[in-house]
Amino acid sequence: MCRLMAYIGPPILIADVVLWPDRSIIKQSYDARERKMDSSLPYHLAHGNLNGDGFGIGWFSSAESKTSGDPTPCVFTSVTPAWNNDNLGRLSCKIVSPLIFAHVRAAYPGMPVSEQNCHPFQWGRYLWMHNGVVGGFMKIRRKLLACLSDEAYDTVQSFHSDSAISFAIFLHHLPSLQKPQSPQVLLTAMQATFATIRRVQQEASIEAISLLNFVVSDGITMVATRFASDPDEAPASLYYAEGGKYQRAADSTTANGQLDAAVSGDDIAANAQTARRTSLTGEGSYCLTHGAIGNHVALVASEPITGSTAEWVAVPAGTALVISRERNGYINIMHSPLDASQGPGQSRLDEVARSLEAVYGSIDVPRQLPDRLTNCASDWTGKRSSVDLVRDESGALEVPLVRLASCSLGDCQRIHAHEGPVLCIAVWQDQLVFTGSTDCLIKVWDLTRQQHKQPLIGHSCPVQRLLLADGLLCSIAGQIVRLWDPNTLTCQSVLHLTKTGGALWALTATHLDNQLYLLAGGQDSYVRAFPAASAECASSPAHVLPHACTKGQTGHAGAVLALAATRRYICSAGSDAMICVWHKKTLALKLVLRGHRGSVLALLALGSLLVSGGRSGLLRIWDLEALVCRRTLTGHRADVLSMAAVTPSCRPCPAASAQANGHHSRQPQPSMFATASADGTAHLWSTNCWTCLRVFQLPGDPCPEPILSCKLTCSNLYLGGSEGTVWSWPVDDLYNIHSQESAESGQSSIRPIVSKASHEPDVQGMRRLERSLREFLRIKTVSRDPELKEDCFRGAKYLCSKLEALGAEVKMCRTSDDVNPVVIGRLGRCKNKPTLCVYGHYDIQPAMEREWQTDPFELTAIDGYYYGRGTSDNKGPILAFIHAVQEMQREETTGLPVNVAFVFEGEEENGSNGFHEAVKSNLHWFEGTQAIVISNTLWVGEKTPCLTYGMRGMIALSIEVTGPVRDVHSGNEGGVFSEPLANLMHVLGHLTDEQNNVKIPGFYSHMREDTLAPALQRLDTSEEFSVSGYQASLGVPQLLNNASIETILNARWCTPTLSIVDVRTGDNTAGMADAGYRFGPTRFSVIPCSAIGNVSIRFVPDQTAEELIAALRTHVHEEFAALNSGNKIAVHVKSVGDFWDADPKSVLFKLAERAVYHEWGCLPLLVREGGTMPVASALEKLLSAPALLIPMGQASDACHLANERLRCQNLLHGKNVIKSFIKELAGHLPTCK
Q1: Dist. CA 725–CA 419, nearest whole Å
Q2: What is the CA radius of gyration of the chain?
Q3: Which residues form the signal peptide (predicted)?
């Protein structure tokens, strides 16, 4: 069996990974300790430990060395033994790479020993290597090759190698060999590769066992598998590890006995000389350091290459690892089944797919922290104080508390606690503070004396969690749990939970049958529960403790990073963006809660509620009775890393994730809780009103020190920083106020989230909506301006944050790099509720008109109107939808009565490029849609609300006449040939007559009759539209003859029209932006070589675009032929948008009419629009649901023009109409199906 290894992380010298570790793959090539024995081979082949039939390394260029943008990796292979190849040593000491593959080969009998068969294999951007064998390969080789496409067949690098052909099968299953693929696509291709191999083996009745440990990477994502085709057969060994850094251990010595530090800079040359002699002389111990906020390094290897077993996790059989980077570049590792038929089934694969989509499926723009948060309560004015360190009588290091120079929150104290980041804090009876750090120590601080008391020594790995439960201090580090007596500060018990499961990263406690149970979770994705009483004495050798454990096929797909215990459930969260809710007694999975994007890093139980936070910086409040997200709190601008709570009884919250005491008897509920973030701030929140009471910020410009841990008592907030400091702020003033409020209200528990006044004055709701609109308008989301692409991304991110505040699942999707993302959201998936789809577009038109009287990107309120680009089209209506749903969440005690699917595009003003594809590829987000609501049209007038029941279609085309090969001088060549512009004017002039009637034969054919009738029934009795008023609004001297309300509306809404919208001259290949306007002062002397007329056709039901285009082409060519010109003419269709038509007598319209009447006190006018919105008909076809257009703006809103505006009253009532319509829709579910 071969040996393999892969590294992904910051750029590193290849020698640090391949040559110098004391258990490197070079050492494994002649001293393999876990090589799987094959009883089918002769003894000397089956039981050897040599891998000397060739080797190879592959690497991707670091970002600094890439000059041409070439994504392909480089490979070096040889048939000589790896331990005796000088070139390997020379290259490894000079090449730095962020992703490295290494493989040593043991060839099977009949397999040629040649460089062509050496791993890793490379094609395009992909590297591939394999440890194992495809069972019966020689019998099925031709059948496997027959499965390949021509393109994939050409990638086969060796027809003798089962590994090379397996690689080609993987490439065959990729959508494209040229374009980069997402982690989910790579995983799907890997699963399809396994399915193909298994299928061919079954068809050929192959019984030989396949061992398929594959590793593949595109330079960004890595997928590694461990698989044996026989479930009863152990697969070949495979491990993974992750950490903040990979480096030579500080106490490592080389083979020469000299201390050797990590290789960097000037050391490379010296180490290169060492490597040329032999890799053994540079050998030393390597380790992975802990990543306080997140890990940057991952390793995959057949055998561990570092000495600490706590760093390595055995990959479960039948599992694929997906390793890539999430927010801020942190490594994320997820597990996925490879074959649904062997284990958990399709449901597990679907869960993993959803986790991959949640972590990797969103387009993320890197956030930059501001120089200082504007709402920070801390104002740091001085430098950090220096402290003299002294030793007490026992010789222990004594670190006094240091008072800050100034702090606007009052006296703030800090403790220089550790040499490394402070990962956890616990407080014992307001007398002792325990702190744990990456320095593997637990330090005890005496609060009364304000000095260090003593360290608790015993752990050899970073101390990840501390909690106090039943008079015990519990700590976890590596794979060990220790129980300490806080009174005597001695270790009482040591628990060893796992040998191959990696490090433990989460801990909580609970009571079951009057017995204290501890629960721990970590790298291997399991949650383990065990009684604390079963722990052994510290003097006894630690062994793996029997424990209850969650089942891998139903639990997490990634590492468990946080735990919390409630009265009924155990909740866990991790790197897979999942929150698993487990039954406390059985650890059986109850439900998976979703909504976070990226890893969930912290949990906090507040009675029947659960607070979660993670990479997105958002806090989600979950109702564990209803098992739904009830609220999202915003404020942090980076990862939420820790949370803690305090109860009115002045006791820490019993269910706080890392500091839980485990009691499950009823206690006073927390009145405040704190959250700590990597943005350097901690927020103190009230559970009475769910508002932020105070913000604490650590010093540091431009970026403050990240806060890794927090602990809240009734008197102080303790924060652990990344530089080893513990900060303490007094909070007793806030605690006393909130305790008094709770006592006066007679409530000992949290007020229900939805019980907040449902009759809240509209002025408050309007202020919130206005504030949101002001923020949104400041983002210049002009889709037509390439220089504003970043602003368009900011606009999409802003909408994501708004939807996340509702508790919705959110995704950003785009189909190509040159289009703005489509924001998709989903709030609720209850099958017993109707699903409403809400559409809008966040992109806007440019605002370059000189007529603007206000800043178009700053909301300005004048005389009851909001002015600014996008107020009416379409940012105002979008926010009205969002705030309507938000208010209903507060008002409806039984929850939102409908499911809501949101879709907001960023290219509507630019042709909706990519929108159709984005929706089509994400149809599962819109499952069950029964109605589509759009607000992207206008009223017919100024006073009466309207409902739109139809819109015309549009054909955009150009007519181009070309003549000379170049522009010519009018003085020299004028009058000697037929000029293109004159020809074009003749053709354009014969498209319509004097009354603007279109002269194209058949242009008015197939028009549906009486489409105006529903509108006239109510318009005739209203004063919303008049001929004179309409003429004045246009600013035209006169309308066409016989103008009446009916004829004008019929011409605007129900009749096809043709308009010449632009005429330009010049070569069209140069672009229309400057064609005809590049001549400057000499333009009167130039005859253009070509002329182009742009034409807009609007068509109506039941006309077809194809027939109209054909009729226009025929007419144009006939008119041009009559000129007998030697020039050429062509018609170019630019775009086509279909008409949209609805039945105003439908149930959906009746419900909307009732909603409008409830808010405005009058029936809406039924109107059509002459404009075109192809998205309405497109969504109807994609979602198989009817669309409803509810305009909010008035006819005078000046959309696309200067001084765009939206009446404040319209925005407020529009929001309320949506709320009423949702209630109407929910009440008529059977009718609306």
Answers
A1: 9
A2: 35
A3: none
